[in-house]
Amino acid sequence: MTILHEPHELSVTEAAQRGVAGLVADAEGGSDVVVTRRQRPVAAVVGIQRLTEIENTLSDLNDLALVLARAATDSGRRTSFDDVLSAYGHTRESLAALPDDE
């Protein structure tokens, strides 16, 4: 899977001639535009729907990396909630006695 769908390349000069309105129209129509300077990509113009897809994919990949890291490092050892409370000088009863923040 590539990030951009068959992007159309334009030089900075061509993009300037096309104008912001033209670039936005392309993006709204689903075309990904890559702007180049000296034949090197320097910017991309994508529609908001495509940007949302990219952001969602990035979020999914971050979640996947976390799951894989946890699976690779999981020793199987678990700590009970009561042990955690005890380590911080609390019990379930002491937590219940704390005033509610409003």
- The percentage of residues in β strands lies in 5-15%
The strand count comes to 3
Give, in order, the helices and strands: EHEEHHH
Describe the global form: elongated
Distance between the termini: 48 Å
Q: Note poorly predicted spans.
A: none
The number of domains is: 2
- Radius of gyration over all CA atoms, rounded: 25 Å
User: Mean of residue pLDDT?
Assistant: 91
Q: Which structural class best describes the helix and strand composition?
A: alpha+beta
Helical content class: 40-55%
DSSP helical segment count: 4
Main sheet attributes: strand count, strand direction, barrel closure: 3 strands, mixed
Biggest sheet, spatial arrangement of strands:
1-2-3
Description:
The chain has helices at about 10-30, 50-75, 80-85, 90-95, and strands at about 10, 35, 40-45. With about 100 residues, it is α+β, with helices and mostly antiparallel strands. The protein is elongated and about 70 Å long. The two termini are about 50 Å apart. The model has no long low-confidence stretch (mean pLDDT about 90).
Task: Summarize the helices and strands and which ones pair or pack.
Blueprint: E1 8-11, H1 12-28, E2 33-37, E3 40-45, H2 48-73, H3 81-87, H4 92-96
Parallel strand pairs: 1-2
Antiparallel strand pairs: 2-3
